[in-house]
Design brief:
single chain; 118 residues; alpha+beta; 3-stranded mixed β-sheet; 2 helices; 3 strands
């Protein structure tokens, strides 16, 4: 088996695809629309596809609370934790950094525009 895609639920697939496009540089798939959008590296089937599907009545995770579980989350390697977190919450970005949790020397948690922690 080969993992080919990870898909996140959200209210606005195009907005979330744009956020992750700006964060990673991966291109938005040309067939993305208001119901399902995605990012793909290389030709179809050549790399991991990151998808975003619209869910009516979507409720974002309440991380670190548990009222609405965090759902799947994404992990990214970066060279500089502080710089990466600052870039993602720069003016005009919708993501935010929740209060510090365990091991800030190893990771930072940022919430994307749909509330998914990554």
């Amino acid at each position: 088996m080969k993992l080919t895609a990870v898909t996140l639920d959200c209210a606005d697939p195009l907005a979330l695809a744009d956020f992750y496009h700006r964060a990673t540089g991966l291109p938005v798939h040309e067939r993305s629309d208001a119901e399902f959008a995605g990012l793909a590296r290389g030709p179809a089937g050549a790399g991991l596809f990151l998808g975003f599907q619209r869910v009516e009545g979507y409720r974002p995770p309440s991380w670190p609370g548990r009222d609405v579980p965090q759902q799947p989350h994404l992990d990214f390697d970066v060279d500089d934790l502080d710089e990466a977190a600052a870039r993602l919450v720069a003016p005009g970005r919708v993501s935010k950094v929740p209060p510090a949790r365990r091991r800030p020397d190893l990771w930072r948690v940022v919430l994307d525009p749909a509330g998914h922690p990554f």
